[in-house]
Every structure is written in structure tokens, then in C-alpha cells.
Protein 1
Amino acid sequence: MPKKPKNIVIARSTRLYLSDFGAQYAPQLQKWLHDPQVYGHLRDLSQTLTLEDQLYWIQLANKDPTLKVYSIYYIPDDRLIGYGGFKNINAEEQIAEIWRIIGEPEYQGRGLGTELYWLLCDHGFRELGFQNILAEHFSNNPASWETAMKCGAKRMGTRREARWLNGQWLDVHYTDILPEELVRPPLKK
């Protein structure tokens, strides 16, 4: 029997729930941002980000109307395993861009990224009123692309050599999804 969550549950799926994102998460965020297995395909790890940098970013993020950040918990353990949400929110146009990170390596490869993509999109459509959700996928992270496609996202195109990361140019693939296209994928055991 799963534990009762100790946090406010904003949205939930079978194995995950979204909660608020506050200053208490800065040390965990800093750890993930410097882990090559977590962030090596997303940012140049030669730049050190301090705990103060993380605290400042969290404060800014929680005040920014174009950004919605959630902490991600794994229900069976009630453990913080990542974070994600929406950026570039345009309330008038009802559009946003999704992003998400499973930061704890032992929770990767278990289908949680797909479940998280679905959970965020479902929340974005039903509770935040989005009509279209965009996603970027760097060519060095095919799992990101596969996750979106499993949930019903459609390919928009590729911007070639659009991201310089760790000494190489990467293509950036784009997908988007509408409310009626969202499919809840089967759970990976």
C-alpha cells in the first residue's frame, strides 16, 4: 500500500504526483544539475551552479507568470525524483512548452518519463487550459522524443544544428500535442 503523500498533491497519475516547488528543493536541484547522467545531455557541465544560484532561480520561477514548475514525486516511496512543468506560457494564446527531468538515476528506464509527460500534459490541458503544448528534444536524447510520441504528440520538424553542447552541434526536434491527441500510455513494469 503506497504511503499517504506528505506534500500537497496538485495532480497525480498511477505512480507519480506533482507538488509545489520551493526553496527546500534547491540542494537536490543543484545535485541533479551537476550529475552528467542527468544533465549531461542538456547543459554544459563545465559551469558550476551554486546553491545560491538555485535558490535565486526558484524564487524567480515561482514569481514568473510564463513559468510553472512542479516537484515530481514517486508515489510508492513518496520520494522526490525530479521536477518539470511549463515554460514560455502564453495565457492569451493558451500555449506552453513542456519540460521535465527525472533526476534520480534509479528511477530512469522505468517508463516514468512517459508517465510524467502524460501527467504534465493532462494537467496542462485540464487545469491550466492549454490548447497546444510544444516540446523540444535534443538529438542526443532519443528517449525524450520517444516519450512524447507514445503520448500522442505529433512531429513538427527539426531545427538542424541549433544547439551547441559539450563541443558539438545538436539538432533540435520539435513535437506538439493538442488535448484530443493525448493518449495515456500503458505502464511499463
Protein 2
Amino acid sequence: MVQKRLALLFAVGFTASASAQNPADLTPRDKTEVFIQHLVKVAKIDPARYQALVLEYEIGAALSELTHDLESDQHAPDGDCCGAAAVLLADDFVQSALKELHPDYTEALRLYDDGKLGEGRSAARSLSSKADPYVSAYARLLEAETEFATYTRNCAKRRESTGSATIEAEPLEKVIELCEAIGKKDRLYLIQDHRACELIALSFEKLERPLYAFVQYTILLTDYYDLPPDVEERVKRKLATLSETSGRPLLTVGEWMNKVEKLLGKELTAEEPTQAQETQIVSALDKLIELQEARERRICRNCGGT
């Protein structure tokens, strides 16, 4: 199993992507145009409301571009501030339309905002199976947010009452599972898809798995368009801190493999520590493969390939 993943890791490193355009290649503007087509062809939205929503978005986009042209000297040279504004504008448009189409999604958001996390999680979970891929994607992300917020709040309560908070792996692993699924299925539908990737990294940190967190934050910087400046800066700070212990993941995994080899040489094959270490190695290699695939997409995107 480990050998297969190592072979795949190196194969990915030397094989350029030749598939159709990946959702990761799409800008917020691209995704919004796909969503508009969805509203026209699939969603049963009132034509007048549809026209108002699209007009609102187009006016906002035009004003954003005009402001950038007129005040270019006040903007960052790389245009990061304008990219972040485009993300927020597109996300607001999609959210407004989803609220119009799905009042139960509006209610789930209200419960989350009011701090009623248990109710919000249940409401989001019930929406995640909706036929509309947009509301189901946004509901899955909301469910992950409520899971993570619930864990964080419970930790704070335990720390306040006992002075310490033990790690509870199950809820954090649930967040990771939800967000991994979002990354595989829902990136086309989410404007701020980077949030799912960040939640995975934050969960790895809380699980005290720094190598996984380091690789996940690196994926976040590599594979996501138009990160808001505050998110990008936060991720770079995290990477700077984590690099001290986890900045050479392949070397670390190699050390883990050496340990397993020594354990097997002593005929120690039980769940602890040998099988657990083998599982850790396999999952780490999977993360490194994911990172290499993201790098290939970025190279192809920057050179204009498909």
C-alpha cells in the first residue's frame, strides 16, 4: 500500500494534467456565470427576481472594475484587494439567490449566526441532500462550520471549568471528512471554496498533527484563486510557524517508514505502534499526492495549458 502511494506520488510529479478544465481553475467570475446559467435552466426562480439579482451583480461587478481603474494607485500592485472584493461580490450574489430559492437555507444561516449550533447543524445536514447542487454544497460547508464551531466552543467551556481541554478526535475528524468531500465534489458550486480547505488545516492543528496541517496550508496557497488578503496572510504565518517542525514532509515520512521497518524487523506487528504508524504513513502520502496534483494544476493554469 505504501509503495503504491509512493509510486503514484512520483508519477504525479512527472505527469502534466491532460483532463478537462478542473473546477479549481475557475475564477469567482467564471463560477458566477455557471451559476447564472443554472438559475436560467434549472432553478425555478421568478423571472423578475432573477433579472434583479443578475442586474445587481453586474452593476456591482462594473462598479468594482471602475473603482479599480480610477483608483489604481490606491490598490495593491498585484490586485489582491480587488480579487478579494470580486470573491465577496460573487459570494453575496450566490447567497442572495439561494436564500430566495430556499428559505430553509436562510433559517439554517440564522441559527448559526445566533449561536444555536446544534439546531444549525441539523438544519444544514437536512439541506445537504437537496437536489439543487448549490444549496447542498453551501449546506455541507455550513455543517462543517457548525461542527468546528461546536468543538471550539466546547473546548472553551472545558478549559474554563477544568483549566484544560483534552483533544476529542471524533468531531474534528468529522469536520475533515465533510471538507474533504466538499473539496472533491463541490468546488464548482462554492465561491469561497477555500474555507473548506482551511477548516481541514485548522482541524489538523487542533488534532496536533503538524505535518498534515503544513501540507494542507500549502495546498490552500497553491490551489485556490483569489484568497482574501487576511486569509493569505494568516496562512503564511501558520506555515512559517509549522515549517520549523514540519517543513520537510517527505523527510519526515521517510523517518516514519524507517521506524516501521525496524518494528517489523523485531516482529512487532500489533495495532500499536506498527499498524497505527503504517496508517499514518499512508494518509500522509495521500496528502502529499494531493499537494502535487495541486501544483500540477497551478503550473498548467499559469502556462495556459488545459
Protein 3
Amino acid sequence: MHPYNLHAVRFWCAVMFAAVMVYLAGLHAYWALGGKWGSFATVPTVGGERTFHPGPLATWVVAILLAIGAVIVCGQAGVFAIGSWSPLFRLGAWCLCGVFLLRAIGNFKTVGLFKSVRGTPFAYWDTRLYSPLCVFLAVLAGVIASGRD
């Protein structure tokens, strides 16, 4: 494949990755500010009880980390100049790949493709959206991280 085509592939992978991350960052900011839309199935439950109760601070931290993830992949893909920071952006992109892959695999109980707790709203959405999205994001981050210019 021509080097310019690889650059274009990495660029469009970064655009897709960043779009999802920015959307999710905004959604987490909305929740941190007290919004309720979509929050009914965001935390795993066991026996009808949430397994944890994220507060506004934790939700803001997730929003910020998601936004940072968007910046990392865009920098690694060459959307903007990163200069001597290149090794850190590459490492960051590989870390994002790993984090999303691990999230997709899950904890084998309440989260991920191999969870044992089923039949809850979270499990439904985790199987159909959250975990597949994490696989998709892991692949995009891997493509971006592995790029060579």
C-alpha cells in the first residue's frame, strides 16, 4: 500500500476514534452535571443493586480521560504535530488499545464479552454495544499506534 494511503487510513481511524471519545466525554460531562438520559444501564448490577456508585468527580475524571484519549490518537495519527513527544503518543495509543481490549474482555463476572451476570439492563447493553465498541476502539487504537511514517 502506498505510504499516503496508510497515512489516510490512520487519519480516518483517528477521526472515528476521536469522534467516539469526544461524544463519550460529553456524555460523561452531562452525567457529572446531573443529567439522567442513558444512565439507567451504565453500571453493572447484581441482584438489582449497582456494583458501584460513581460520583460526579469520578465521572468528570472519566470524561477528561476520554478527551485525553482523543488527543493522543489524533497526535499519533499526525492530525497535529507532536515533535519530540512522538514516543509518548505512540505509547499512549498502545495503552489505549490495551485498555479497550481489556475492557472488552471484562472481569468475567459483570463486565465484558465473557461476563457471567446476564439478564440486566447493563448486561444487555454491554453485550450489544459497550463491549463491541471497546473491541472497535481497541482495533482503531492499534492501527493508529502501529503506524510508521
